[in-house]
Each structure stands twice: as C-alpha cells, then as structure tokens.
Specification:
Blueprint lengths: L1 H27 L14 H9 L4 H10 L6 H14 L15 E13 L6 E11 L5 E6 L4 H15 L5 E4 L6 E3 L6 E2 L1 H9 L3 E4 L9 H12 L6 E2 L2 H16 L11 H8 L15 E6 L5 E4 L2 E4 L8 E6 L3 E5 L6 E6 L6 E2 L11 H11 L3 H14 L4 H14 L1 H13 L5 H10 L17 H12 L4
Parallel strand pairs: 1-4, 1-8, 4-7, 11-15
Antiparallel strand pairs: 1-2, 2-3, 5-6, 9-12, 10-11, 12-13, 13-14
Helix pairs in contact: 3-4, 5-6, 10-11, 10-12, 11-13, 12-13, 12-14, 13-14
C-alpha cells in the first residue's frame, strides 16, 4: 500500500507541473494565430502602397522607418499574395482610324555572326505597327543612331506603300532630345524625315509605355515566337527568315482583339495611308557651332559666313554633300544657305562682309609694305581675296620676315607673283624649300663695332693716357 500511495503522489505532482507549464506557455505565447502574417495589422497601409506600384523592398523600408518591427521576408510573402488577390486594373483599348497612327519601338534581335569579328552578336529589332490593322514591319540592324532610326522609318514606309499621319514612340535619344509632357524637343533629323513623309511624332509620357501597347506586344511576341533560341550566320539571312515568318504566320493570323485577319485589315487600311513622296529624304549631318570673330562657322575645315550680328553666338548647322544651312537656334528659321566649299575655302554672301577693314589690319598692311615692293603687292592681293580671313596669313608673313629677312622674303614674293600665286602657304613653302645661302664673313655690318671702339675701351680700363 505504501508503494502504491507513493506512485500516486508522484503522478499527481507531475500532472500539477505540466498544468503550470501549460499555463505559463499560454501567457507567454504569441498574440496572433501561428498561420497569420505579421503584416496583417498593416494590411490597409500595404494595400495602398501596392496600388501605387511600390515593390516589396520599398514597402518594407517604409514600415521599418515607421517603427514597425518586421522582417523583409514576411513583407515579400504578403505582397506576393496581395498582388495575386487584387483585381487587375482595367485597360482601355486604343482604337484608331485607318492610316491614322503607327507605333514604333526597339527590342533585342537574334544572335547573328558579325562579318568583321566572326563572333555572334546581339542585333537590334525595330518594329513599326499600324494602329488600325496591327500590320507590322520588322527590321534588324547591328546598332542604332539618329540616322539609322530615321532610315528604319523610311524603309518601313516603303514596305507599307505609304505613311501614317502620327507616329507614337517612347523617349529614346534617337527620336527625342529633351522629353517633356507638353512640348518635347525632337531630334531635328527625325523630325524632318517624318515631315518629308507627311507625319508627326507624338512621344509617350515618360515611364508610360502603355500608350504604345500594340507595338510593345509585337516586340514581345517576336522575341518569344519566331526568334527564340535561333542564331543566324548573316544579317541578311536573319532578315529573310523574319520576312518569311511575317508573310506566312503574322499576317495570316486572326488578331485576338479585332477577331479579323491582319492581312485583310491591312488591305482595308492601305488606301488610307499618306502617299510616298517622289524623292527620298536627303539626309544631312547636324550640330551646333559658335560664330568666330571673322563672322564664320567652320564645317569640315571650310568656313561659311553668318549674318551680321551673330559673332560669339551659337547657331544650328545642317550640312550634306551639297549645301550648308545655318539656322536660328531659337526659332529654327533659315539664316544662310551656302554651297559646300573645299577645305580651307570660304563662302560669304554679298552684303555680309565687314563694312570696313579694321584698324589693326590696316596697320599690319602698312608695316608689311615697308618690307619691300613685292611684299606689299602680295599681301595686298592676299587681303583683297580673303578679307577678314587673311588676318592670320598677314601675321604669318610678318613672322617670315623676322625669320628670313626682308630682302629674302621680298625676292620670294616677287617669284610667287610671277607664278600667279598670292597666299601665305605658298610663300612659306617657297622659303622652306629654297637652298640655303652660302656663309660669308661680312666686313661691314651695323652689328660689327669698329676697332677704334675697342681700343678706346681698353685705354679707359687700363688708365693708359697714350
């Protein structure tokens, strides 16, 4: 009996200990269900942040800054579940009239073996999509530039047989120099190419690619379907493959939104496209130049005079193989148009020359005239031909006189005048190539003092009265 009562007492004590431990665990346990998220008390705040487009890391940082003790993993899991539970925002389908709008964009093209390096390189995929029919033109290039971007539009218009009235693009540098919601500054070459084809550009708002969702969808579909995982040995081979895929599959598909065949809708849209101009666009280079003190700007080592009053100011310049055009940077109006000159040449329209020769140039001409008759004739002729641009040549002639002597330069000027030459460069070459004069000891020269001068100096130093 004593043994049984001892065992019963031990069991009772053990039960009492378990009850006390359980009670302590309940008191010290969590205040929420184990399956609930630590983010649940902050659900409203997190939902609002998600609706603004903020990611999990940004929401986590905001909560920590607000004094909430929470882990990033909990926020990430909660945001992931929340995004799946939220109702997607309704999207508006943009409908356009036939021939009204085209959307353009760049994407990553396939890997193609480069002809110079022999290695595979990623190409760039250009897509132009018509807003009404969803007809797309897909072109591949190695790299992009302002001119390449404009040439791709021109090629796309030629393939379509016409142009649209509006081209929608994002704010890439080739098309938009300065993004702005109300007044974006377009790349001048791109703007003029579209104007040549009767179109205008409308850039999207910054970070708002949905405005051109049709071409965005086309870029993604092209990367996933015809080009996924393929490599080509040449750019021509890749373009030919893409053209075949367009004709066989892209144009014959039934579009998911319009429920009509793309080729059939393009047949309805094509008559509404703006007809192509007779001549292609004449491409040019462009830039900014400061008008120098001689009233000219320098383009490819030639000089073109600006209107009076523009010295020290910036002008916009456009040039090609035929003409150079100076434009007002504020209004874009044409200031002057010149024919292209050879290197070192100068082009001035009548009436743009300075009203009178500056005083410093007149003084320099008078100084050179005193060096000799032939020097005077050559420098005067040179100044009459070049005008203000002759200033440096006159200074160079004066430097040659100091180096070689007035008589030598005068003889050289006489020889050049007999040959019909009157410019500084010919004078310098003539003097550099002439044979050196034989050395001789001069007996009389202003720099050589007489012997009596040295005799008197010695007598003065030694104190000899004789």
């Amino acid at each position: 009996m004593s043994t049984d009562s001892g065992a019963a007492k031990a069991i009772a004590e053990g039960a009492a200990n378990l009850t006390a431990a359980g009670a302590a665990k309940v008191i010290a346990g969590p205040s929420r269900a184990p399956a609930a998220s630590a983010c649940e008390p902050h659900r409203e705040r997190i939902e609002h942040a998600v609706s603004l487009g903020r990611n999990a890391m940004a929401i986590y940082q905001d909560l920590v800054d607000a004094g909430v003790a929470i882990g990033y993993a909990s926020v990430r899991r909660f945001v992931r579940k929340l995004r799946g539970a939220l109702t997607p925002e309704e999207r508006v389908v943009i409908e356009t009239a036939p021939g009204e709008e085209a959307q353009v964009d760049y994407g990553d093209g396939p890997m193609v073996r480069h002809p110079e390096s022999g290695k595979y390189r990623r190409t760039r995929l250009f897509i132009l999509t018509l807003g009404f029919s969803r007809k797309s033109v897909r072109l591949l290039v190695w790299k992009s530039s302002s001119r390449t971007w404009a040439e791709l539009h021109e090629e796309a218009f030629r393939r379509l047989g016409g142009a649209t009235k509006i081209v929608v693009l994002d704010n890439l540098r080739e098309g938009v120099v300065e993004p702005d919601v109300y007044d974006p500054k377009l790349n001048p070459l791109y703007r003029d190419v579209l104007r040549h084809y009767g179109a205008i550009a409308i850039p999207c708002r910054v970070r708002d690619p949905d405005r051109k969702g049709k071409v965005e969808s086309g870029v993604g579909h092209t990367k996933r379907t015809p080009l996924k995982g393929l490599r080509f040995e040449s750019l021509e081979e890749a373009q030919a493959y893409l053209d075949r895929w367009d004709e066989r599959w892209a144009d014959t598909r039934i579009h998911g939104t319009t429920k009509r065949q793309v080729a059939a809708m393009f047949a309805d849209e094509r008559p509404h496209l703006t007809p192509l101009p007779v001549e292609p666009f004449r491409y040019y280079k462009f830039g900014e130049r400061v008008v120098h003190l001689d009233g000219c700007v320098e383009i490819d080592a030639a000089y073109y005079h600006a209107p009076p009053g523009w010295i020290g100011r910036v002008v916009h310049v456009q040039w090609d193989g035929l003409r150079v055009r100076l434009l007002c940077p504020r209004t874009g109006h044409l200031l002057r148009e010149h024919l292209v000159q050879r290197r070192g040449g100068r082009r001035v329209q009548p009436g743009d020359e300075p009203a009178k020769t500056p005083r410093r140039v007149l003084d320099l001409l008078a100084e050179l005239a005193r060096a000799g008759e032939h020097v005077r004739t050559l420098t005067t002729t040179f100044h009459e031909r070049r005008g203000e641009a002759a200033g440096r040549g006159l200074l160079g002639t004066r430097a040659l006189i100091k180096k070689h002597g007035a008589s030598v330069v005068d003889d050289a000027c006489g020889a050049l005048l007999e040959l019909g030459l009157a410019d500084y460069r010919s004078l310098r070459r003539y003097l550099d190539r002439r044979p050196p004069a034989p050395l001789s000891l001069a007996q009389v020269d202003p720099l050589i003092r007489s012997l009596t001068h040295y005799r008197d100096l010695i007598d003065q130093r030694t104190g000899d009265p004789t």
